[in-house]
From TrEMBL, chain A:
InterPro entries: ABC_transp_permease
Native organism: Oceanicola granulosus (strain ATCC BAA-861 / DSM 15982 / KCTC 12143 / HTCC2516)
Keyword Nucleotidyltransferase in annotation: no
Record key words, sorted: Cell membrane, Membrane, Transmembrane, Transmembrane helix
Origin: domain of life: Bacteria
Membrane topology annotation: Multi-pass membrane protein
GO cellular component: plasma membrane
Signal peptide: none
Location (main, coarse): membrane
Source organism phylogeny: Bacteria, Pseudomonadati, Pseudomonadota, Alphaproteobacteria, Rhodobacterales
Transmembrane segments: 12-37, 65-83, 95-111, 117-137, 149-169, 204-225, 246-267, 273-294, 301-319, 325-347
Cellular localization per UniProt: Cell membrane
Entry GO MF terms: transmembrane transporter activity
Name the UniProt record assigns to this protein: Sugar ABC transporter, permease protein
From TrEMBL, chain B:
Organism: Oceanicola granulosus (strain ATCC BAA-861 / DSM 15982 / KCTC 12143 / HTCC2516)
Gene Ontology molecular function terms on file: transmembrane transporter activity
Record's subcellular location: Cell membrane
UniProt-recorded name of the protein: ABC transporter, inner membrane subunit
UniProt keyword terms in alphabetical order: Cell membrane, Membrane, Transmembrane, Transmembrane helix
TrEMBL record, chain C:
Listed InterPro entries: AAA+_ATPase (IPR003593), ABC_carbohydrate_import_ATPase (IPR050107), ABC_transporter-like_ATP-bd (IPR003439), ABC_transporter-like_CS (IPR017871), P-loop_NTPase (IPR027417)
Protein name: Sugar ABC transporter, ATP-binding protein
Principal subcellular localization: membrane
Biological source species: Oceanicola granulosus (strain ATCC BAA-861 / DSM 15982 / KCTC 12143 / HTCC2516)
Compartments, as annotated in UniProt: Cell membrane
GO MF annotations, alphabetized: ATP binding; ATP hydrolysis activity
Gene3D superfamilies registered for this protein in UniProt: P-loop containing nucleotide triphosphate hydrolases
Length: 360, 303, 507
């Protein structure tokens, strides 16, 4: 008989080992999944995890790692604040869309003015404000009416998607696009592009993501705000006793994650995606939830997890084209990773004991 | 504009529109009354939708399809149960994982079924009763699942209110430590509730893929599972209010669709977002109910 | 000699790092009131949980009526006639009395019949109770009645009562004892768990005394002195705090017309509370659990904001000020619940120092924490208050209840408060640590601070208070000098007879 016994304090050893264990389990079961789909599991795993980095075309794939990883890390860093405080923003996808829309709208409104020093900073500002504003809806509703932020933030994803479609077909549509949905291509507008080095996969989102990691690390470990966030998540009553204003914290957490998601969307629309289109969003906002947990809500962990998850995206695409592995299999693979992570997390807080039935 | 819509047709179609959400919500209500917050309703629904569709296509029977949907989604729910009840994982995170996993699983399973047409579910023949003006159409013109959903609501209500099992379930949800101290098996009761919730969500999903649409498309639940969760809050965890909430929501959906069809001068996208906006508004107005005392908390018997 | 009902033979139960019960053997006879006496942590709870089927012993066995008794779960125990009245965690606030009782029965009758039986039993034993009231709205005493009636409906042969009087007023205790004596006369054995010696002397025929998991003695409490039993229980001599009655300096805190709704569901609203505390004075606030203690502390700590004019500290109106603004003014508090309220269980002791000491100990600059200072402060608390722990990096939850309590109280005292408010300062703390905490509170007052001690332990309050007041359903009786108060007077205060003239009680 297996029994769980609470540890006197969380194990640091397992805190860092469990994500690796989860990845290992996912690889094993993912292999089984690929085998069931009739693919050679070893080839599939190699294609997903190694080819993007070490194959003969790796120089083409490696920049993609930055392109896919940056929005994931940026969003996940924001989410980690809230998740630590027990504020569950799961509508980052919506904030990402609105950030992109606001950022793009500024650029398109000023087109074809050439003033990068003005336009790009304005886009950053509006991208962040857009995401922040969208996240303030669940935030203010929670603080004012006690409304569940999980459900509201999620509902707003669907609203944002419809808004995106309305914008791509309506106000933001390219007037020279011959009636096709979608906006002008921002990467062809020098004042509005977020690319720094397109071939190297370098854009402002990547730089912002790294800055966010450093900043988050400092805030979490050194600043009173990080302390209050951790305290509120672990013991809400102790936090209130300590003098934390719970409403303020909710707004800070939702605002931070919203602003970062909005920034991610803005950098994406003005760089890798290039334009506002109906299918602009590809689920970074949801995958970032996995990234946040996989990184143990720790900034450095999130950076690593974001890289890994970006790898599965790129590797998944390669596997799709080379092995005809269905796209859904990769999505399932990512879902599995989160499951295994949650499952092995028990080892951090509990000891597993085998107990024999006593002889009576 | 509204004049062109026949009220009896409106009521009848809102019942159909509400049924998937009603089924998923009544299952989640039982789960939450047992003190568990399963945010994976969306994932279980879509798994039910694809399982039901596959089984129905292969057997030719929509009824077997619904059974398969319930079984498939319940199985997925048991993964959630094992993680949260045995491995004591965080319920919010695990529910999210369930949704992400369910979305991936369903699109993988359903790949080769896109574009097929499901065997249709015949209406229940009430004979002359369906001839009654207005009421006939509203009450006696539906497929069996509409009645099944109503029966489940009534059954859950009676179970929670009048049976010992219902009392124990409520007790577990209210205060799991006390229920454990009295010798009730908290984990087993929650497992059962979670499986029931999964089965109901599966039925709701299958209703979409087998009746309402009726075919399989990726991501076809489009947030219905989340709306079901919102309706449980709206209903303050009471079955009859849940029915009201689901039908209100069905009404908004149908009205919105009718407006789209009638070619009102509002872009389709704004009409399509209305059910989600209404859900948010409803959540704002109705966040006063008292949730079960142990809702969402992890239970670990330390003795 | 009555025949043996339950015999325990060599029961042993170990948890990691601690042996809760070691080779415990004794007999309980039919119809006897048997006391199980011991300090917190002596192993009483583990033992009764074993008897009730919640814990499986590692070794040893039990016999009930001569037959082997190995209850795998409480259901089995109940079926065999063993019932238990819990101290905590066994009622369901949102359910009504009848539903709560039905849950504790194996084969409950139909709801209507059950309600009738509840009325029957409650009248027979003098425990009035309405079957259809929601339990969350009941007082602590009434809630206990629910538990007792739930047990009595099963016709138990053995009734286990875990610290039953800690939630009762003296008058209610008298009623309870009459009920128990009646039951005992009818042949029901009662296992009565307590650490209150006078109660045991008044009620029990036999006492088994536990210390550190072992049986250290058995006696007839009617023939033993409280001192003998106390020494067996503690295993040494007790330090009694010394108290020089203070003369009272300037008014520190002035509370007037304080009314506020409880922030919790089923909490108790505060109603028109008024009192003042002076520098150098200890005000003891007694009361049965759940009569507004948590809410009063919250209103003083700043967790619960109140309307203007209700709470004044050193002349300032602080009703709208938050906890940290009050701390800056030297008003410090320590709530009752250590885990998750006064301290964050998963955080280290250093982080728990930051929890309340950030403002006064200057633990941050421009929002950036100075972990070195925080750690040094945590180490100081550990050293000065004799907190047993390997070091300040340990998580709060790794400390025993008593040690964490010393840490929490020490953390506040070392911040040099002008007013310290503590709730249940010695709950769950062993006797010597409790004495040390009380002495520290008295020293604080002697140094010129005002101290408010909220407690359910009347002996403690009588020992350290200059003045005494009682909370009842959110109202506070007028404070009176503690010296010379009789048990009857205290009982009346606790029972809510605030406005009654004391004169006729003396008779």
């Amino acid at each position: 008989m297996i029994r769980l016994e609470r540890r006197p304090q969380p194990s640091t050893f397992w805190t860092w080992l469990t994500p690796l264990l989860a990845v290992a389990l996912t690889v094993v079961f993912g292999g089984v999944l690929f085998a069931m789909l009739g693919k050679d599991p070893l080839v599939a795993i190699r294609t997903i995890f190694f080819d993007p980095l070490f194959s003969q075309f790796a120089s083409f794939y490696r920049p993609q790692l930055l392109v896919k990883g940056a929005p994931l890390v940026l969003i996940a860093i924001g989410l980690s604040f809230g998740f630590r405080a027990g504020v569950w923003n799961i509508g980052a996808e919506g904030q990402y869309i609105i950030g992109a829309l606001c950022g793009a709208a500024v650029a398109l409104a000023l087109y074809p003015m050439e003033a990068r020093w003005l336009i790009f900073p304005l886009m950053i500002l509006f991208g962040a404000l857009g995401g922040l504003g969208w996240a303030m809806i669940p935030g203010l509703l929670k603080v004012r009416f006690g409304t569940n932020e999980i459900l509201v933030s999620l509902m707003l994803v669907y609203v944002a998607e419809q808004l995106l479609a309305a914008m791509a077909l309506g106000p933001l549509r390219n007037p020279e696009g011959m009636g096709f949905p979608g906006s002008r291509n921002l990467t062809q507008y020098d004042s509005a592009t977020s690319w720094i080095d397109r071939a190297g996969g370098m854009h402002w989102g990547v730089i912002t993501a790294f800055l966010a990691v450093i900043l988050a690390y400092v805030v979490m470990s050194r600043h009173i705000l990080g302390f209050q966030i951790r305290l509120a998540g672990q013991s809400p009553r102790a936090a209130a006793f300590s003098g934390v204003n719970p409403g303020g914290l909710v707004l800070i957490c939702l605002g931070t994650s919203g602003a970062l998601a909005g920034l991610a969307g803005m950098f994406e629309v003005s760089g890798p995606a290039g334009q506002v289109s109906i299918d602009f969003n590809v689920g970074y906002g949801f995958t970032a939830i996995i990234v946040a947990f996989l990184g143990r809500l720790h900034p450095v962990g999130i950076l690593l997890a974001g890289g890994l998850m970006a790898l599965t995206y790129i590797g998944g695409e390669i596997a799709q084209s080379q092995l005809q592995l269905p796209a859904a299999a990769i999505q399932l693979f990512q879902g599995m990773l989160l499951f295994f992570l949650l499952a092995v997390d028990v080892l951090t807080h509990f000891r597993v004991r085998l107990r024999h039935r006593e002889v009576a | 504009m509204f004049g062109s819509i026949d009220p009896s047709l409106l009521v009848a179609s809102l019942m159909v529109a509400a049924t998937p959400i009603l089924l998923a919500a009544i299952g989640e209500l039982v789960v939450e009354r047992a003190g568990v917050l399963n945010l994976g309703v969306e994932g279980m629904m879509i798994t039910g939708a694809v399982c039901g569709f596959i089984v129905a296509i292969n057997t030719g029977s929509p009824y077997v399809g619904f059974a398969g949907a319930a079984a498939g989604a319940a199985l997925l729910a048991l993964v959630f149960a094992a993680l949260t009840q045995w491995l004591l994982s965080n319920q919010v995170a695990t529910g999210l994982a369930l949704t992400l996993f369910g979305l991936g699983l369903s699109s993988l399973l359903g790949q080769s079924y896109v574009g097929m047409r499901a065997p249709s579910l015949p209406r229940v023949d009430f004979g002359v009763l369906s001839e009654i003006p207005f009421l006939g159409r509203v009450l006696f013109g539906h497929d069996p699942m509409v009645y099944v959903s109503l029966l489940i609501v009534a059954g859950v209500w009676a179970f929670l209110r009048y049976t010992r099992g219902g009392l124990v379930l409520r007790a577990v949800g209210e205060n799991h430590a006390a229920a454990h101290a009295l010798g009730y098996n908290v984990v087993a009761i929650r497992f059962a509730a979670i499986a029931f919730g999964g089965a109901c969500a599966g039925l709701g999903g299958a209703y979409l893929s087998l009746v309402r649409v009726p075919q399989w498309t990726e991501g076809m639940t489009a947030g219905a599972g989340w709306i079901a969760l919102a309706i449980v809050v709206f209903a303050s965890w009471r079955p009859w209010r849940l029915l009201l909430g689901a039908y209100l929501f069905g009404g908004v959906t149908v009205l919105q669709l009718n407006l789209q069809a009638s070619g009102v001068a509002i872009p389709v996208e704004y009409l399509s977002m209305s059910p989600y906006v209404v859900t948010i508004l409803v959540l704002v107005v109705m966040s006063a109910g008292r949730a079960p005392g142990s809702l969402g908390k992890t239970f670990h018997a330390s003795t | 000699m009555k025949e043996t009902l339950l015999s325990l033979e060599g029961l042993t139960k170990a948890y990691p790092g601690v042996v809760a019960n070691e080779d415990v053997s004794f007999d309980i006879r039919r119809g006897e009131v048997h006391a199980l006496l011991g300090e917190n942590g002596a192993g009483k709870s583990t033992l009764v949980k074993t008897i009730y089927g919640l814990v499986k012993p590692d070794r040893g066995r039990m016999r009930l009526n001569g037959a082997p008794y190995e209850p795998a779960e409480p259901k089995v125990a109940r079926r065999l006639g063993v019932a238990m009245v819990f101290q905590h965690f066994s009622l369901f606030d949102a359910l009504n009395v009848a539903e709560n009782i039905a849950l504790g029965m194996e084969n409950p009758p139909r709801p209507r019949d059950l309600a009738a039986r509840i009325r029957d039993v409650s009248e027979t034993y003098g425990l009035p109770l309405d079957p259809f009231r929601t339990v969350g709205d009941l007082s602590a005493g009434e809630r206990q009645r629910v538990e007792i009636i739930r047990c009595l409906l099963q016709d138990p042969k053995l009734l286990i009562m875990d610290e039953p009087t800690s939630v009762l007023t003296p008058q209610e205790v008298t009623i309870l004892f009459e009920t128990l004596r009646k039951l005992s006369a009818e042949g029901t054995a009662i296992l009565y768990i307590s650490h209150k010696l006078e109660e045991i002397r008044a009620l029990c025929e036999t006492a088994t005394i536990l210390r550190l998991g072992r049986v250290v003695g058995t006696c007839d409490p009617r023939e033993s002195s409280a001192r003998q039993m106390a020494e067996m229980m503690v295993g040494g001599e007790l330090l009694v705090p010394e108290r020089e009655p203070g003369e009272g300096g300037a008014v520190m805190l002035e509370v007037a017309g304080l009314s506020a709704a409880s922030p919790r569901p089923f909490g108790t609203a505060l109603r028109d509370i008024g009192f003042e505390v002076r520098a150098g004075e200890v005000l003891g606030i007694g009361g049965v659990a759940g009569n507004g203690q948590d809410e009063l502390l919250a209103a003083l700590s700043g967790e619960l904001r109140t309307k203007p004019g209700m709470v004044r500290f050193k002349g300032d109106d602080i009703g709208r000020r938050g906890p940290n603004e009050r701390r800056a003014r030297a008003l410090l508090t320590a709530p009752e619940e250590r885990m998750g309220h006064a301290a964050a269980p998963d955080m280290s002791l250093t982080e728990n120092a930051v929890l309340t000491a950030n403002v006064r100990e200057d633990l941050s600059r421009h929002g950036f924490l100075r972990w070195g200072r925080a750690r040094a402060f945590a180490e100081l608390v550990i050293e000065r208050f004799d907190v047993r722990t390997p070091g300040p990096d340990r998580a709060a939850m790794s400390l025993s209840g008593g040690n964490l309590q010393k840490y929490v109280i020490g953390r506040e005292i070392l911040q040099r408060p002008d007013l310290l408010v503590v709730n249940q300062p010695t709950w769950g703390v062993d006797a010597s640590a409790a004495a040390a905490i009380r002495q520290a509170l008295l020293d604080l007052a002697a140094g010129g601070a005002a101290v408010i001690v909220i407690s359910q332990d009347l002996d403690e309050l009588m020992e350290i208070s200059d003045r005494f007041a009682a909370l009842n359903e959110g109202r506070l009786s007028a404070p009176r000098p503690a010296r010379g108060l009789s048990v009857e007077e205290i009982g009346l205060m606790l029972g809510g007879a605030h406005d009654m003239e004391v004169a006729h009680v003396d008779a």
